[in-house]
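Q: Sequence in, structure out?
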Amino acid sequence: MSRTGRRPYRSERRPSSVLPAGDLAVRLERVDGGTLTWSWATADEPIFPQPLATLTNDEPSTVRLTSGPDGVTLRHEGVLGRHAFAVGLIWDHLLDSSGSHPWMETLRGQAAEATALAEKARRRQAERDAEQWGGAPPPDRLRGLPSQARSLARIDRPLLDRIDALPAARRREAACWAARHAMRVAGLEQIGWIADALAAAEADTPLPRSFTEQGGAVAFQRLLSDPEVPHTTITLHLATAALGTRRVTGVLQQAAAFPALLALANDDPLVAAIDAVYNAAIAHGDDRDRFLTDTHTALR
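A: Exactly. Output:
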């Protein structure tokens, strides 16, 4: 598509070499006395909170200026149809107002509104993060983990950060330490097949298949059906974003503790440590806070 216009010719009204356009800039390069190339580029100083990452058109177009007794004829060739109206307005301003870029005032207003909305959204997200994560926004690696990271953060955010700061080997040790304490408090440490699985994890050898397949469902069913497994009940103290702490009474302690052992099957030491520590804390019931204090001491 071409854009054609005619104006009285005045040399000072020739187009500038760089035209600001918000997050973009138009670069005009003279080819000869009457021909220029028009191309889009990213602005050196974008004004919108999320600057454009791609150009509106990667291909340059051609501007031809022809002088005559009645003025100058401008012909802009190769304009994309969706850009024709905006390009026409720009040329109208350029040819009528030398050195002026009045469209920038509109763009700056839009950018200010977008910046205000982005800041409002940022504050809301920070408030949600503080509520859901017990403090400042977590690193992306924690936010995206398939783990109990958020649940642990709600009951003890500093402990989550402490685990995250550990090297991989120490994370695996922390996972085993927490799993053993969970088995101990639930009376499972002396159950043969459970003790063997825990010992295998501590020796850095694979857990039995029943602990690794189907998320450990087979091992969990064995736990519930094994007549040697004790049955004690506890009160869970669960942290929730909406309700603060929620108490759940009459929970089978062994079922609450067992996921701490299943966590050791995870190949990611960070996930294993987070899940083992969180489930061990829950399994301690009313003694949860004491366990968390002991964990801080153990991980120093």
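Residues 6-15 have pLDDT under 50 and may be disordered.
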